[in-house]
Structures are given as C-alpha cells and as structure tokens.
Amino acid sequence: MVQSYKINSYLCNVKCKIIHIDETDSTNRYLRELGSEEDVCVYTDYQTAGRGCGTNTWESERGKNLLYSVLLHPTSVPAASQFILSMANALALKETLDDYLTDIKIKWPNDIYWKDRKICGTLIETTLRGGHINECIIGTGMNINQRVFHSNAPNPVSLFQVLGHETDCQEVLQKVMANTWKYMDMVKAGAWNDIRTNYRQHLYRLGETHRYRFHDGKEEVCQLLNVTDDGHLTLQASGGGTCQFAFKEVTFIL
Length: 254
Hints:
This protein is an alpha+beta fold and 254 residues long. Helices cover 24% and strands 33% of the residues. Helix 2 (83-98) crosses helix 4 (169-189) and helix 2 (83-98) packs across helix 5.
C-alpha cells in the first residue's frame, strides 16, 4: 500500500517524485510496472522478495534498512557505454557512506564494502531503444540499523554494527539521492572521464594481490589492475599474464 507521495523535509531537495510503500515484493518490480516517463524514487520498509544480482537475494529486517529503487531516463547513454551508470551510482553510494564511515570502497562491479564486509548492494536493470538507454532502474539495499544477519551471506555489515547506534534511514536516503543526482548530472554533461577516474581510484583491492576463483572452478592469485570502460575486471596473474573478466566470470575469495 502506498503511504504517501508527499516529499518530506529530509527529501525536499530531491529532483524527482518520492513514493513510500509499507511493503512490496520488489521496488524494482514496482517501478517497472509503474512505467513513469518522469524520474521516480520508491522506497519501502520491507521487501518480501528483495533481489541481488543474478539469483542472489537480499536480507533486510523490516523497517531497519534503506531499500529503494530509482527510475531514470538517461537516453543520451549508448547501450555499449551503460556501465557508466553503474560507476556513477556506485560513487553516489560511496560518497553517502563516507559521511558515516572511513574505509568505504567499491567492489566491482557495484557493491559497496566497509573493509572486507558488504554494506550495500545494487541491481541495475535497463531497457534499450535505438541503441541507447531508454529506462534505467537502479535498486539498492543499504544496511543501516540491522543488528543481526541470519542468511548465509558471507560478510554483511550494517552502519549500526560499526557505529554502535542507529541512523535515520530517511536522512541517508536524502544524502544518497542528492549524490545520485550529482553523478547523473555529470553523466548528462559528458563528464565520463571524471566518473571513471574516481570510480577506479576507490576500487576495493585495487593494486592488491589476492586469490580469485574463475568460472571453471580454478583458483589463482592475481593482482587487480583495472576495470575497463565497459565494465570488465582486469587481473594480472602471478605468472605475469593479464585477463579481463565479465561479471560472474570471476569471484573474489574473501
């Protein structure tokens, strides 16, 4: 049930309609069915079928975390360059969490980590028209006030677990929306090199050597060198050769 279309005091500077829902199966699904020609953000207290990337699910206790999706229309972005949206969104999330914690990094492609633990995950879904992005739905779960995680996810963490006190979820939403629009305005203005440079500077494990598992099950110690403009991860094996990997072709071993 939709509680309100009214923008509250925290969200007064956001450039889109804000919808609050008590409960839904998925905020991404809600926005797909809404089909607005305007930019819209929907946030909820609880998702019954929250999704991560691929077949992953997202655990969130009712009313404790920030669960939202944003429907955008970045129609100037070619389909081949859509990873710029993922970079921009990851930076918006990182800058938001920088207000609360140090040691925030972007784990390729778009997870947000505090040290070696996952505090934020994002699912991005796009539709195309004529070789360009038509619509982009960015769905994010950010762990804010949850004290205990019960799923088999290997390394979740919340702001509460680090800070020892609760944080206002709507305050965080206001900040993340302001940062989202900051970076989406940069996308529209063509400041893509700035976004890419900033994204790469804040990569989790950049320049470090760790063990990775490949899609064939083999493991190898590699150095993380880069992420390409189209979103491929570049690793250098201990023997000196470099390889590029698409999402799901390689796994970070934590």
